[in-house]
Amino acid sequence: MDKEFADLLESAGAWKKAHSGTRELSAAFSFAEDGLVRVEAGKHSFTYRLKPLSALYATVRSGGRSLDEQLPLLHTIEAAIKRFYLARRELTDAGVIRALDQLSLKPETQSQDPLVTAISLDLRLQLSLGEYSREEVRSAVRRVLRSAERHKALAGQRGYLDFICQHVPG
User: Fold this and answer.
1) What angle do CA 78, 93, 33 make, to 5 degrees?
2) Phi, then psi, of 21 in degrees rounded to 5
3) pLDDT in tens, 23-44
4) CB–CB of 96/42 below 8 Å?
5) Dihedral, CA atoms, 96, 101, 105, 111, nearest 10 degrees?
6) Residue 5: which H helix or E strand, with range?
7) Beta carbons within 10 angstroms of residue 81's beta carbon
8) Residue 13 pLDDT
9) What's the average model confidence in pLDDT over 121-145?
């Protein structure tokens, strides 16, 4: 977690109380090069450079996380893939699988693959706001990778991409 970023969001009033009593982030994010993010929260806005993934990992937890606790990471990865695909329709499941395979080995990798870069940027934002270890990130990437492989095998070269376009919000 990035305490400095969290404090900036707090001072900008980006957190709102939800109906359930929990807090929800109420801000719009737009990304620029190499982790530069513009945050719009009500009348406040600021620009911040997200820290690299390697600086954001939490310490390893014993026992791991439940699926419910992993959902924010899974959604982050799949939403990044969906946005990328909607902007670049030539993407196929094979390209997604290659990118996820790279990230599953070393999530903080610097890659020339623009999909890897897009997923990494979204992971940097997610880890700036939450506590996840490197192993938890790798586990979430591997879970999405298995899903992409399964959907490709069942439904062809864009089976996974079609699936997330139908089922992943955002």
Assistant:
1) 55
2) 95, -10
3) 777 788 888 778 899 888 888 8
4) no
5) -50
6) helix 3-11
7) 26
8) 83
9) 95
**Cβ–Cβ under 8 Å, residues 104 and 142:** yes
> How confident is the model at residue 122, as a pLDDT?
95
In 3D space, the residue among 166, 147, 124 whose CA is nearest the CA of residue 35 turns out to be 124
Running DSSP on this structure, what letter comes out for residue 33? G
SS3 104: helix
Residue range 57-78: mean pLDDT, rounded: 86
Q: Which two tokens stand for residue 123?
A: 């992971």
Residue type at 108 in one-letter notation: E
Percent of all residues in the chain with a pLDDT value above 70, rounded to a whole number: 95
Largest CA distance in the chain: 48
Place of tokens 């996380």: 65
Neighbours of 70 (CB within 10 A): 17
β-strands 36-41, 15-17 pairing = unpaired
Tokens representing 75 are 């959604």
